[in-house]
Design brief:
- With 337 residues, the chain is of the alpha/beta class.
- The chain folds into 2 domains: 178 residues, NAD(P)-binding Rossmann-like Domain (Rossmann fold); 151 residues, N-(1-d-carboxylethyl)-l-norvaline Dehydrogenase, domain 2.
- 51% of the residues lie in helices and 12% in strands.
- The protein is built from 16 helices and 8 strands.
- The protein has an 8-stranded mixed β-sheet, sandwiched between helices.
- The longest helix is centred in the middle third of the chain and has 23 residues.
- The chain is globular, with a radius of gyration of 20 Å.
- The termini are far apart.
Length: 337
Amino acid sequence: MSGAGSLQTIGIVGAGAYGAALALAAARAGRDVLLWARDATAVEAISRTRQAPRLPGVMLPDSVSATTSLSDLLAADALLLTVPTQSLRQACEALGPRLPADRPVISAAKGIEQRTGLFTTQIIAQALPGARPAILSGPSFAADIGKGLPTAVTLAATDATLAQALAEALSSPAFRIYHSADPRGVEIGGAAKNVLAIAAGIAIGLGYGESARAALVARGFAELRRFGQAHGAQSETLMGLSGLGDVVLSCASPQSRNFAFGLALGQGRSVTQAAGSTLAEGAFTAQILAQMAQAGGVDMPIAEAVAGIIDGTIGVREAVTGLLARPLRAERERESE
């Protein structure tokens, strides 16, 4: 596992927009890809048209093969799991004891498991004890990856050599992967930024303007850093692609599902109406993030406000107005709360 040569075949669990985009990215990096989809119709469409239904207009090369059988992925040299965080454990358990020992399993999910408070590499380690967990995260939209637009993300594992080998195996000229030995920092950046994106969307939906959004994002990023430091994350990671970089992208664009969800909430829609067919990942993360922060004595008022809005204990306008009216203090003092 010292180099990319032993990582020729990549198995991807999940053929949604992001899974299909990562399949294309891996193919561009010269890898053979096995793309698993639950829906046989999607597999048939990919095989017949070379296009993924959730990523229209992008052609998949012949090096990407689609399947409905998880057993086909057991032969892959590494696995990428692109299912949502709350479905990650189920996906791991479906792979089960048949997965060969020491197989790298990379999560591309951005969240915290509601029931346990575990981060994604912890879920993988618990559900697949023989696997080698890793996390891929950073500022990246599936559509941009699919079009081959320049994108940079981070891949982290506690084994720095493994992280480097995986990053090298999946990188291409337009899809740059930086490696890290700080998976916790990468996971916290990806999970917390989704909650911040909801808050930013709410502010814009309420008509509070760009200045209010900037204030919420800046103070929210301070919350993210406090939470990260409390959980042993490296400050360099939080200031990097998977932390600050992802915050900038997700809090500024309606392409972000979390921002769009918050925008709809701010415009007066209910949680169900704002969610549409799929609830944004940050909506699941907000409550457990706020609970973990409170348990650890970490001040995260923005995360708490988003959690309160989603569970219905506080109104949207009341929550945001309260955040913007918090007591004035020296900024350095607020940063260290």
